[in-house]
Amino acid sequence: MASEQNPPKKGPHRMATASKPRTDEEVADRQLDGEVDAFVNKLHSTIQEARSKMSDEDLEKADEEARAILNRASAAAKSSRHSA
Questions:
Q1: Is the pTM value of this prediction over 0.70?
Q2: What is the mean pLDDT of residues 80-84?
Q3: Do 54 and 62 touch, CB atoms closer than 8 A?
Q4: Which of 47, 68, 71, 51 has its CA nearest to residue 59?
Q5: How far apart are alpha carbons 15 and 10 in whole angstroms?
Q6: pLDDT digits (tens, 9 = 90+) for 36-75
Q7: pLDDT of residue 22
């Protein structure tokens, strides 16, 4: 008798929660994220291919230059945080 009064909560007769419709802004954000990810992946593979063709000396020089650029960028970011 109790089962007749309280039908089971699970089963094919129950509908799943409807998904919320996505706004145009969310769709645009997801599309932009996908495009950025694709660009970053392509850029990364291009850099790896170029590095594979470099000599050891060229690799060391490129790494030093990259470190210097990153250090300058980090220092600039830190100084802007302190002045804010």
A1: no
A2: 65
A3: yes
A4: 51
A5: 9
A6: 999 999 999 999 999 999 999 999 999 999 999 999 999 9
A7: 77
> Do the Cβ atoms of 36 and 44 come closer than 8 Å?
no
Nearest to 29 by CA among 37, 39, 40: 37
b/e burial code for range 33-58 (CB count within 10 A of at least 16 → b): eeeeeeeeeeeeeeeeeeeeeeeeee
- Contact of 43 with 50, CB cutoff 8 Å: no
Taking the C-alpha atoms of residue 28 and residue 38, their distance in angstroms, rounded to an integer, is 15
Length of the chain equals: 84
